[in-house]
Design brief:
It contains five helices and eleven strands. The protein is α+β, with helices and mostly antiparallel strands.
Length: 217
């Protein structure tokens, strides 16, 4: 008999739901594990218009920028590499739509959902805490909403994306280093006051409707 796959967060042992604070308004640092977000990597000569028609978000062309659309976020990772992040459970549908749209192109579409988790770091002290271990210049004049980068926090390679002006940052890290990063962030934030938050795991992504051809009768 085939074994049933048990999907588990790399931070499941921490029971973060039980630690969640009902009120996070007064916390200088709020940590949230954004579990199981869909993550699809695209490499190669991918046509942005075809991608947008297929899934509803274009591929950003400027280095270290982000595009948003149809409840998806596309991050520029390199001259011919992007990461599309979407709601929980949407990875199979997104991957299929992209594979169909880029069929015949010199591009690879790979589901990398299980390889990383995402930790959101938000609050007045978010920049200060991250900057303790990250070599990027995170000053608001340099790194703002809609920007992303690949870097390190302490010894862990990350992808960081500023989400809003709270400020809030989404940090993606490999599963094997997720617990290390969580511990590092908690330790760095303790002098300021920390709250733990949770978010619902809902699949609210839908593939865009195909446009009818003008020649269609």
């Amino acid at each position: 008999m085939a074994e049933t796959y048990l999907r588990q967060s790399p931070l499941a042992h921490r029971a973060l739901d039980a630690q969640a604070n009902a009120d996070t308004d007064d916390a200088a640092l709020v940590l949230t594990e954004r579990r199981f977000l869909a993550k699809i990597n695209i490499r190669g000569k991918a046509d942005s218009a075809a991608v947008k028609a297929a899934v509803g978000v274009e591929l950003p062309q400027a280095p270290n920028t982000v595009a948003e659309g149809n409840n998806l976020t596309a991050l520029w990772l390199g001259p011919a590499e992007w990461l599309i992040v979407g709601p929980v459970g949407a990875e199979a549908a997104i991957e299929m739509a992209l594979a169909e749209a880029l069929d015949g192109a010199s591009a690879a579409v790979v589901d990398v959902t299980e390889g990383r988790t995402t930790i959101r770091v938000a609050g007045d002290k978010a920049r200060d805490v991250i900057a303790m271990g990250c070599p990027l210049d995170l000053h608001a004049r340099v790194f703002a909403v809609g920007q992303c980068a690949q870097s390190f926090i302490s010894r862990g390679p990350i992808i960081i994306h500023q989400v809003d002006d709270t400020p809030a940052f989404d940090i993606q890290i490999e599963r094997s280093q997720a617990d290390y990063l969580w511990t590092w962030l908690r330790t760095g934030g303790e002098p300021y006051g920390i709250a733990v938050a949770t978010e619902p795991e809902t699949d609210n992504w839908r593939r865009p409707a195909k446009r009818k051809s003008k020649d269609a009768s």
